[in-house]
Amino acid sequence: MFVYLPTPLILSLTFTLGACMFPGQHWGEWNDSQLLPTIQKLMKGYNRYLRPNFNEGPVEIGMSLDIASIDAISEINMDYTATIFLRQRWRDSRLVFPGNESVSVDGRLVSLLWIPDTFIPDSKRSFLHDVTVENRLIRIFSNGTVLYALRITATIACNMDLTKYPMDRQVCTLQLESWGYNLQDVVFYWTRGNDSVRGLDTLRLAQYSVESYYTSVSEAVYETGQYPKLVLHFALRRNVLFFILETYVPSTLLVVLSWVSFWISQSSVPARTCIGVTTVLTMTTLMMGARTSLPNANCFIKAIDVYLGICFTFIFGALLEYACAHFYTMQHQTIEDLHRELAREFYESNGNGSIATSTRPKNSVKVNPPEEESTEEPANCDTQATVEPKEEKPGQGCSLSSVKDVSRRAVSIFIVENPHNIDRHARTVFPTAFLFVNILYWLYYLFL
Q1: Which pTM does this prediction carry?
Q2: Gap between the Cα atoms of 347 and 354, Å rounded
Q3: CA–CA distance, 230 with 189 (Å, rounded to integer)
């Protein structure tokens, strides 16, 4: 049968048993070969409400971290969830005992000791693991050094710049500060510099890889004073291969598929229309799916949005190309039908006139005498003389002719003599322009 004993009773029993086992020894006489220090002996006269070195200077607290895992990185909430082992070391002269050994005590006895009030300022949610007991470790060394370790999981904010998503590089931080003790009371430092953080080198993430990390020591300035602060900076590089296979390759293939219509006859209206509409709708669905896992922030125009917009523009342009080619084909066909109709009417009218002239006598040719011709020439000269001064008058006919010329040139721009040349030019212009835009896109987002 198990009987629960309170902690004070356990301590007193430990003290009594130790006295019975070593009757010749006294608790005031330390001997590390026969007697280890008990909590009751160390806690005698100890005040956990006063920090070490009270009124003698600040307490130096060394920090080290083990990153066990980074479970999730959310672009929507702009945070990451990490499980860390936080270790803190400081020296408390009130806990000095003879010898060169250390004492590990139960983590539940942490309420008997003074511990730093360290917290994570950017934490949104955090908890201490308690399976099967609270994951705390307290170890006291003979020179009074106290090692306090705990295992926590925290969701920490990380300001992200998603303008180059998914070719982005995010720099997140893990900050440690003192809640109530200012710089006159405690001083934080990393125990081994950058080597104080372990676990990031071997960390494996789903979409990211740890590119680099470093530590720094700074101060947190608030209205109530200046407080010590330690910062861990680590850079995360997103793995772009997943997005290339999921988004970039399908969108590029849709653009290439829209170019197939350039090789289909313009008379095949259902085929070309079906290809254009299908590619536009598929591209729209792809754009909507790419935005579901990202924050709906107007301030971010992401790289993937730019590329999807480029692909959608080329696909929609291919559809408009067929609309223009079909329009000019119908216009050209209408003009040809009109020309044929006019030619037919002209030939019919000329045919009737030739029959009428063939019935006339061949010798009925009128010859004007030389006097009449000579008299007609001066008359023509007089008429030309009377007409030419009218043309030389300024402001008459000049503006009207210039307007007609401009209108003819403007109309000639929109007149295509051979509508089939539109498809021939599109087969070269569209792939060349798309290749050029891709080169500029990847150069800018990968190297700039």
Answers
A1: 0.71
A2: 10
A3: 7
Locate the DSSP E strands across 184-321.
186-190, 197-198, 208-222, 225-238
Residue 278 tokens, joined: 């299908």
| Cα 255 from Cα 283, distance rounded (Å) | 9
Residue 335 exposure: Cα atoms within 13 Å on the Cβ side: 11
99 Rama class: left (phi>0) / alpha (psi -120 to 50) / beta:
left
pLDDT, tens digit (0-9, with 9 covering 90-100), for 391-417: 444 455 556 677 767 766 665 555 666
Using a CB cutoff of 8 Å and minimum separation of 24, what contacts does 247-253 make? 247/286, 247/290, 247/304, 247/307, 247/308, 248/307, 250/286, 251/283, 251/286, 251/307, 251/308, 251/311, 252/311
* Nearest residue to 139 via CA among 126, 153, 131, 149: 149
Angle formed by the axes of helices 420-447 and 303-358, to 10°? 160
Residue 345 DSSP code: H
What would the pLDDT profile of 264-301 be if each residue is shown by its tens digit?
Answer: 988 888 899 999 999 999 999 999 888 776 766 556 78
Half-sphere exposure of 131 (CA within 13 A, CB side): 1
- The DSSP bridge pattern shows strands 118-119 and 169-178 to be antiparallel
Question: How are beta strands 197-198 and 136-141 bridged, if at all?
Answer: unpaired
Residue 251's Cβ-count burial label (10 Å; 0-12, 13-18, 19+) is buried
C-alpha span between 179 and 50 (Å, rounded):
16
Closest CA to 156 of 89, 237, 220, 67: 67
The phi and psi torsions of 157 (rounded to 5 degrees) equal -70, 145
Cα dist from 363 to 367, 369, 370, 373, 407, whole Å: 11, 17, 20, 21, 50
